[in-house]
Amino acid sequence: MRLLLRSNTGEFSLTEDLVGDDTIPPYAILSHTWKEGEEVTFKDLMDGTGKSKTGYDKIRFCGQ
To answer: Is the pTM of this model over 0.85?
Structure first.
């Protein structure tokens, strides 16, 4: 399992893969629906792309 991590500057990254006995930090579950083609994918997060997608606005809002 990976979680989104918001930095003090407002940027997002992913945690390392949490498995087994790893301590899982507090987290929230974001329930969402995406418009076609506007979902921020794992690849978008890894590449630093996708900030122009509508889904990124939802993620940023929930991070605040």
So the answer is: no
